[in-house]
Amino acid sequence: MEKERLKWLKHVEDWLLTEEAECGQDAVVERERLIVALKTLNYEWDYLLDAYGSASEVPVVLLKLTSDNPEVRERAILTLYTTVFHQGMRTLSAVYVVSFLFHLLLSEKVHSKEEIIDYLVHLAIGYPEESLPEGVEPAAMRQAADDAEQGMTREQRGAYLYEYYSLRVEVLCYQEVFRQLDILMPLTHDSDPKIRKSAIFALAWFPEQAEQSLIHILDQLESETEDAAVANAILAAGLLIYQAGLSPELLKLEKYRGEAFGPLVRMAVAIVHGRFSLNRESIDLLLASLCEADQLNQFHREDIQFYDGWFVSYVIEILTCGSVESQKEVVLSLCNRIGTYQKIESSSVRYAILDLLNQVQDDVYSENINLLVACGFPEQKADLFKLN
């Protein structure tokens, strides 16, 4: 393992020298940054842990992210997802990994930066979909870590950092990413659309920096023409505004409801609208967007950052997070649209609607629900729905 680590250190050193020769004086600062990063990799990793024990192999994996070979980079990022980030849990080594990854984002020679950015989001908050639709509350995260350490001695708190599941490590990872958001902000305007989408998505999870991040997100939103990029930026800005308690008027949603934009954008608008106020108007918008879900097959899931591209799940999440009164409105609106939903060919949408009804019936039992299922989805009624 030490031989392999030295080989990759030599690879990066050669890479740095080449970059300096090609770019001249401008590369000096870049080289100094990555030399600092290399020193980070000389840390005593044996004393850190990943999900399977000693983190001694982590530096080798990190260095492979600098490879020109896409297969090598792909294996490296997958390894990081299963070791440093394991089933949503982060170990202390993750904090050091964050530092090195940001050094890579600063280099012009690093490929697949969108993969690195997406991984940084996971290190900061865990699985993003688990934080939707509410977003994250940094103060609550810090308080939870403080509560977990309540009554611990200094030595015990130090030992707690090395435990497999440590709330303090999660806070440290989040803070380390937050500290370097200024590196992500310019990437929202990158020439590569994948990098732009990932950078915009990443900024959405840091409400304490909302105002500055929104300047970049909203500016780039004005420049985007592709529907998936527009939808992604709308969702990111909407989530950031919601978490920070800012006015939704900042987003100017009305301009994105017209025929100039497709169903993907309209669904994003409906989601943001519903997150701020789940009333009759927003419920109708959300349900109308489900009617267009069949048309979303033209988009690749990887084009959408939120919910891994499963927008229908996001819509259902919004519809079921309101009060009992708002869920009554959901049932009534579904009844009014029964004819439309009978024509939907997508089985995933039909099952999502049934799941929605199954969730609301516990709190909002109504004869209308039975009628809706019996008339709208007779073939699934017996198997998927428990009628009272």
Automatic annotation (TrEMBL):
Superkingdom of origin: Bacteria
Protein name listed in UniProt: HEAT repeat protein
Lineage: Bacteria, Pseudomonadati, Planctomycetota, Planctomycetia, Planctomycetales
